[in-house]
Amino acid sequence: MLVTWKYRPRNTFIQRLDPRTRLIFMFSIILALTVPEIWDFRIILPLFFLSLTLYLMARIEWKDVRRVWIFIFILVIFIVGLNGLLSGRGGPSSVTNLPSPVLFNVPIKIPFTDIGWDVPITVSKTWFALTQITRMFTMTLLAIPIPYTIDPNIYGTAFRRMGASDKVSFTMDLAFRFLPTFARDFIITMDAQRARGYEIEKLNGGIPERLRKLAPFIIPVVMQSTVTGEEVIDAMDLRAFGTAPRTWLKQLTYALRDYFILGLGFAIFVACCVLKWGFGFGGYFVPEFFSNWILGL
Q1: What is the Cα 173 distance to its own chain's centre?
Q2: pLDDT level of residue 138 (50, 70, 90 thresholds)
Q3: Which tens digit of pLDDT belongs to each residue from 171-224?
């Protein structure tokens, strides 16, 4: 049986929005930052606060998203941020081409060899890492509330009303349900092994040893996911899915608030495109105040 994220009705402004509005607005912000390649912090920061405001308006309890945020912080800060800080890659070439003072060098050495080199950490790389982290969080803040605040019964309807085919709409519906279902199966398997005396938590060796002990769970969890997928396929075949156009029980209608949010998202996208392609504004640069501040530390 497929399960969903921890959705619950909250009667907030965000939940009263049409799900299509929220998806389109999220895509508009993502496209506004990526299509014209906006790297100017003066544009990114207001969009970050806009995303943060909408996230807070969703009123999602911290206990529901704590694990998700831990994973995102690790991914964004310790992977994306460190990559930008050490290499300056993943953004415009001006990050590494700009003449910039070196703050310090990080020695990197290949284990069990004498091969190594010093990686310079410059002011430009440091500002780029901060900019990249802010861009990622801007998009993440819009994406996280979606599975927790949109009724799982209207995922497919939302994508169908946005113009997707029946097959694509149902695929997106199942995709939203796959990860929590997989997590449910994994937890059930862990509990079953604990009941049989299989030790998982209190282990010598730290995280590597714990990961090694989790390896035997992969096969039963994958097999259970495969069986669940086969059951869904059989249920769809019994209902003759794909043989004719599908009708959808839920009906979606736009309200005035939806038109406002849609207009705001469209205006942001157009404004970013005009600023970058029309006026050449929005490219990467290091503010003078940041250089003076970090060099003065």
Answers
A1: 17
A2: very high
A3: 888 877 777 777 777 778 877 877 877 776 665 656 676 667 777 777 887 787
Domains of the chain by residue range = 13-295
CA distance 235 to 239: 6
Whether the model clears a pTM of 0.85, i.e. scores above it, the answer is: no
Cα–Cα dist 232/237, whole Å: 9
Helical residues (DSSP H) of the chain, grouped into ranges: 13-16, 19-34, 41-57, 62-75, 82-86, 94-97, 123-143, 145-149, 155-161, 166-195, 206-214, 218-238, 256-273, 288-295
Residue 130 dihedral angles phi and psi, to the nearest 5°: -65, -40
Contact by Cβ (8 Å): 238, 203: no
* Measured distance CA(297)–CA(294) in Å, rounded: 5
Cα 33 from Cα 44, distance rounded (Å): 8
Exposed e or buried b per residue across 239-275, where buried means at least 16 C-beta atoms within 10 angstroms of its C-beta: eeeeeeebeeeeebeeeeebeebbeebeebbeebbeb
* Whole-angstrom distance, CA of residue 64 vs CA of residue 180: 12
The answer to whether residues 192 and 208 touch, using CB atoms and an 8 Å cutoff, is: no
Which of 102, 133, 95, 101 is closest to 283 using CA atoms? 95
- Rg of the chain's alpha carbons, rounded to an integer? 24
Residue type, 240: A
Tokens of 24: 């389109």
Q: Based on the number of CB atoms within 10 Å of its own CB, is 33 exposed (0-12), middle (13-18) or buried (19 or more)?
A: buried
Which structure tokens are listed for 126? 């440091």
